[in-house]
Amino acid sequence: MSRILIKNAHILTMDDNRTEIQNGYVVIENDLITKVSDGNPSGFFDKTIDAEGNIVMPGLSNTHTHLGMTLLRGYADDMVLSDWLQKEIWPAEAELTAEDVYWGSMLGCLEMIRSGTTAFCDMYFFMDETAKAVEKAGIRGCLSYGMIELFDEERGNSELIKGERLVKEWQGKANGRITTMYGPHAPNTCSKEFIARAKKAAERDGVGVHIHVLETEDELNTMKKNYGVCSVHHLDSVNFWNTKGDDLTAGVDVLAAHCVWMSDGDIKLFAEKGVTVSHNPISNMKLSSGAAPIQKMLDAGVNVALGTDGCASNNNLNMFEEMKTAALLQKLVTTDPEALPAKAVVEMATRNGAKVIDKKTGALKAGNKADLIVVDTKKANATPIFDAYSHLVYSAAGSDVKTMIVDGKILMEDYLVLSMNENEVIEKSKACAIGLAKRAKDKKEANG
Ligand SMILES: CSC[C@H]1O[C@@H](n2cnc3c(O)ncnc32)[C@H](O)[C@@H]1O
Ligand SMILES: [Zn+2]
Questions:
Q1: What is the mean pLDDT of residues 375-400?
Q2: What is the ipTM of this complex?
Q3: Count of C-beta atoms within a 10 Å radius of residue 222
Q4: Measured between alpha carbons, how far is 253 from 173 in angstroms, rounded to an integer?
Q5: 101 in ligand 1 pocket by Cβ < 6 Å?
Q6: Which atom in ligand 1 lies closest to the alpha carbon of residue 186?
């Protein structure tokens, strides 16, 4: 049995009472938190980390990523989503190899460890490679193979087989750090019959579903033109949003990324059904997709989490930037400075996201898994701190994350990443990115 003590900590538990403890300690035994308290700890510990008054909190959950896309960081910027995908990203992705996705995923894991993200929800291709990277890096990943049916039944059949294989092979692996979902890409790239089949498979296998929804006004208009209703109501007709099973006991998580063009009726439906929304403000701003009505969703009782989206539309995986942007964007579009206060943003980035990844994470309390970070407050940008939530959202940087523990294992200590060779990951992923871009350029030139 391994016992770790973290002491002298300013603890944000993010538990149901949002308990905040000054000068507290956390005890970790193997992969679990066994005590969170103030006062003096007792007993023998294999390892003691003196937090020296720094903030100790649950690790951040990035609920929408395409990790292999780290290799396409900066590959095509300043374009509208449809052109960006069709003219640049999809042709480049057609050249991806398994090795590219492995090193791109390792690079993504490294960036997440360095900026405080302990868990993420991914949708992409060559997902065995992302799973291997998660195994090695030590973080927590909820992985889905991104299925693009393109309204072609035969293609849909083979996509579903690939999605199923990922679930069968990886669900619960790496001591439960790897979980899986089905990932039908979007209502404007997949038929509702196909999306309903993916949902049924998820219910059968007891895993969730992850989908892009109402990201752009163009999607909303296309759906209305083709089906007479928006994407949300289109999929509601096949019970896609139900998170409870038929007997209202068992259920599966439904994770909807973007949700920018939601009507009041869509929001009400999501609240009733228990859908989790992944809000991706930086990607939405960069692609000019719009501003999701997040304060309205929270007021209606929707579980809203945060995500970065892929590195080609953000262009990083830094959840501290995402938190700040989320807060500022809501204040801007509502013209209400009270919209999306700092504490609500930290909730989105921790406990709300954790609900769809692992319900035993997202809060520091006895019995939960030991996934946490230490945020350095001995910094100019952390002086003074009147309110820890305000500091995290408006002033802190991802690079202030000093130490990270996931599943009871120390992945970064005092800014030193322990679970991988950082230089090797940077060099190998850079070489893969250069090769990928060259292949894509050669293919483009050959096609005229
Ligand atoms: C089917 S795997 C994921 C697929 O989605 C593409 N993608 C990346 N960012 C976005 C976005 O913001 N909206 C829609 N699709 C996106 C990615 O390039 C893969 O092809
Ligand atoms: Zn996406």
A1: 98
A2: 0.98
A3: 15
A4: 19
A5: no
A6: 14
